[in-house]
Amino acid sequence: MIYDRPTLGDSYDTVPKLPSWITSSRVETPEDVAFLSGAALSHLHLVFSREEVPQSLLRDRLSLTAAEACVAFSGRPERVGELRDAMHFLRPGDLPGPAGETYLSWRRALERPISIKALHRAIPGIEADRLAEWVDAGQGTPVTRAATVLETVLKDLPRQVVSALILADAALAQALGWDHVVPSLAAGLKRRDLRKTGTELRLACHRAVTASCIEAVRLAADLARREARLKVVAPKLRARGAEAAVEMFLSRDAVTPTVLADPIRGVNMSNRAARRFCDRLVELGVVRELTGRDTFRLYGV
Questions:
Q1: What's the chain's average pLDDT?
Q2: Is 49 exposed, middle or buried (CB count within 10 Å of its CB: 0-12, 13-18, 19+)?
Q3: CA dist 231 → 71, 225, 241, 264, 290 (Å)
């Protein structure tokens, strides 16, 4: 049976865009910088409440962006493609390497609701009581709290940049009333910003939050459109386990046919059926092949 590629009209562009006075402003005064970050966060908060935004997928993709930024801070060469490979082609008993560990920490921090237990799962090398102490270190507005946590952790453990950024984002999310950590600092900060303190660090965090919110809103709108396209096609898919497989695509940055064929982690398709299913979704224009390779392929919405 042949299916037409799904076509969606403007009615599917339902995620509200950030106003241009946020995205194009070039202000430098502390008051204006703080105002813009607050406005951007308020808009992102509304976007997170939209049912059409695939929240788990959005967080998973943002975790990849945050991991890439942290890997760059450390001076390592790995970027998105290498990070995906390090995560998705890891065999039982293998070690993911430093870059893979960074990505794994971010994924673990974001995939469960905020709690000290969840944060300790993402940062197992630090005692849970100490994590709780750090997350509660900040006072004041959300970004000020996040900047304080970031500065406090880096003062105590200068080399724990990933941990500091995760905990700062956790403090920010808690202050905003969000259930999950959302990467809002790493991608917008520069390496030199991590050496700042006090007012200078707070201003850097405000700018980083604004930049990250702009990207998160753009990504949320894109993923909402892609989810809608996939849901148009989903009822027509007849492969065994198709419904569960579609849900997997709508919650993960990338999926391998091997995972779809795994009876424990996936939907228990045969290996051949899983590959054909992924390639069929690519043909229909609702999923992309992410590597450009003929083997060891990854697929994502």
A1: 93
A2: exposed
A3: 34, 10, 15, 25, 20
